[in-house]
């Protein structure tokens, strides 16, 4: 089995490549500088050159406010890129594992979202990612679309990184307490991706759309408490709950995008673990990055 990982410079791409290396799984990583997935001819050429047995697409435009400001770019990267990858994978008979997001859901209802619940994105990022999912499904049946949420870990700029940095400077933080979600350790997601790759490489059935996130729904405030209580024990900064409207942003965010991961666990025989179980290692690895 040889994986070709697109978006190799991003947080999920880096997690997958690091874990693959530790486990001795052959994986080739391509950053945006190596391959722009919006260039269809280059995508076909890359698959012909590297001859992988499975393609993992972790490349995307993920800055939600940037997507809101530049919808054409968001759709070009998040819809047209996956369309090229899916077409090239189909032409070579390869499976495609494509990352997607909880933001395909509207979030205006309680409870956990299942894979076949109606999608209703509230922002351009969500619409562009949903269009990417549809492009993948249209181009190849041999796909696994994995929707995840609030991925955290040592790589890149994300909410996890932001609160750790701010908590080191400020005695009090104001954190949004009306957006609910399931955080996902990036390393656990990488393990899930490698698990699915091995499952498909063994010829076992499993193509389709799945949810994978950490167990335990929290608000951003609850997530911050969970991370900081590990990283800054016993000197936890004071955390004040604020509504999302306290931080005006270009793009609206859905209020509840908790994902139901039962289908993933049943199909692949791997149940996600509580996100809190991944915090200590993520903090340790974050510090290991020189933070
Ligand atoms: N982060 C989360 O909390 C979260 C939650 C749910 C789902 N997801 C999904 O998980 C996947 C991976 O996200 P992530 O957190 O790893 O994002 P990320 O850290 O922003 O990484 C995305 C990578 O894609 C690259 N990229 C952007 N445009 C590209 C293009 N045209 N061609 C090739 N590469 C390109 C980026 O390169 P540059 O930096 O050079 O632009 C970046 O390295 C995405 O599909 C995302 O929608 C993420």
Descriptive labels:
single chain; 291 residues; alpha/beta; Rossmann fold; six-stranded parallel beta sheet; two-stranded parallel sheet; 10 helices; 42% helix; globular; binds NADP nicotinamide-adenine-dinucleotide phosphate
Molecular structure report:
The structure is a single chain. The chain has 291 residues and is an alpha/beta fold. It has a single domain (2-157, 182-217, 258-275), classed as Rossmann fold (3-Layer(aba) Sandwich), CATH 3.40.50.720. The protein has helices at residues 11-23, 40-50, 64-69, 71-91, 124-139, 159-169, 186-201, 220-231, 262-268, 279-288, and strands spanning 2-6, 26-30, 54-57, 96-101, 143-148, 151-152, 172-176, 180-181, 184-185, 208-211, 218-219, 238-242. The strands form 4 sheets. It has a 6-stranded parallel β-sheet with strand order 2-1-3-4-5-10, sandwiched between helices. The protein has a two-stranded parallel sheet with strand order 6-9. Helix 1 crosses helix 7 and helix 6 crosses helix 8 (220-231). Bound molecules: NADP nicotinamide-adenine-dinucleotide phosphate (NAP). NADP nicotinamide-adenine-dinucleotide phosphate binds at residues 6-7, 9-13, 32, 36-38, 58-62, 77, 81, 99, 101-102, 129, 148-151, 156, 158.
List the helices and strands and how they pair.
Layout: E1 2-6, H1 11-23, E2 26-30, H2 40-50, E3 54-57, H3 64-69, H4 71-91, E4 96-101, H5 124-139, E5 143-148, E6 151-152, H6 159-169, E7 172-176, E8 180-181, E9 184-185, H7 186-201, E10 208-211, E11 218-219, H8 220-231, E12 238-242, H9 262-268, H10 279-288
Parallel strand pairs: 1-2, 1-3, 3-4, 4-5, 5-10, 6-9, 7-12
Antiparallel strand pairs: 8-11
Helix pairs in contact: 1-7, 2-4, 4-5, 6-8
């Amino acid at each position: 089995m040889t994986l070709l990982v697109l978006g190799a410079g991003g947080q999920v791409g880096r997690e997958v490549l690091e874990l693959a290396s530790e486990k001795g799984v052959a994986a080739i990583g391509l950053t945006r500088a190596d391959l722009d997935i919006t260039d269809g001819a280059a995508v076909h050429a890359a698959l012909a050159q590297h001859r992988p047995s499975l393609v993992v697409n972790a490349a995307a435009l993920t800055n939600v406010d940037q997507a809101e400001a530049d919808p054409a770019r968001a759709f070009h990267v998040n819809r047209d890129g996956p369309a090229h990858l899916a077409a090239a994978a189909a032409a070579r008979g390869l499976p495609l594992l494509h990352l997607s997001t909880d933001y395909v859901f509207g979030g205006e209802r309680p409870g956990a979202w299942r894979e076949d619940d109606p999608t209703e994105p509230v922002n351009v990022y969500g619409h562009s990612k949903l269009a990417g999912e549809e492009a993948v499904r249209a181009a190849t049946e041999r796909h696994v679309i994995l929707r995840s949420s609030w991925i955290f870990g040592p790589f890149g700029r994300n909410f996890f990184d932001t609160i750790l940095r701010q908590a080191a400077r400020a005695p009090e933080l104001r954190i949004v307490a009306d957006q609910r979600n399931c955080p996902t350790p990036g390393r656990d997601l990488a393990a899930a991706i490698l698990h699915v790759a091995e499952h498909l490489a063994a010829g076992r059935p499993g193509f389709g759309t799945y949810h994978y996130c950490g167990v335990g729904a929290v608000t951003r405030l609850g997530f911050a408490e969970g991370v900081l209580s590990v990283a800054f024990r016993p000197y936890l900064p004071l955390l004040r709950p604020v509504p999302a409207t306290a931080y005006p942003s270009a793009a609206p965010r859905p209020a509840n995008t908790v994902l139901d991961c039962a289908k993933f666990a049943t199909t692949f025989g791997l149940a996600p673990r509580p996100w809190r179980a991944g915090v200590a290692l993520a903090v340790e690895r974050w510090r290991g990055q020189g933070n």
